[in-house]
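Hi Q.,

Before the meeting this afternoon, I wanted you to have the zinc ion prediction in hand. No need to reply - just skim if you have a minute. The sequence and ligand are here:
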Amino acid sequence: MKVFDRFHVYLWNGRDNNCNSCLFAGVLPGGKHVLVDPGHFVTPAMGESALERLLAGIRRDGLDPSAIGLVILTHGHPDHVEGAVDLARLGAKVALHREDGELFRRMGGEADLYLQDGTLELDGEFRLDVLHSPGHSPGHITLYWPERKVLVAGDCVFYRSTGRTDFPGGDAGQLRRSIERMAALDVEELLCGHPYGHSGFIRGREEVRENFRIILTYL
Ligand SMILES: [Zn+2]
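Predicted structure with the ligand bound:
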């Protein structure tokens, strides 16, 4: 669904586990798009056609999936990156943090570029801040679009909960510091990596603040 100009969100509503995705439309040279976290190709337990559903949603928004020029992965876990292997075959470039590059390689993917903490300048005036946010995985990144106060939090933050830290490379202390850094940003639209007990799209500055307040009290 289109949230506002240049920002589209695709909330997973299948029965199996898969991630939420989003797309920044027309922000690359030539009017191409940036897709964040395409998720599974097919979900492992129930065989739901996850990537097909995502691409259908993108088409419903009047956008052409073949114009996806860049796929950004918040981290390297299979339920976020599997679809990127297929999109790369169709010509999209793939970017993630170097420290999760090995996880992506295990899925059969290869990064075209590595992202690190800093500002990613895309076409013209469009820029995204990249925050290295380790804790759930060593190379987890979150994306902040300051112009519209959008935060794409991946698996760091969920509605009233946080990402797991019991996977290889997980670290609870790092996750807390990563979340504290996010909580200091001015955020009005927070997209979480999964729809756990909620769509995973938290809207409005007060709702976002309240969510950070609650999770930081027990983290
Ligand atoms: Zn994950």
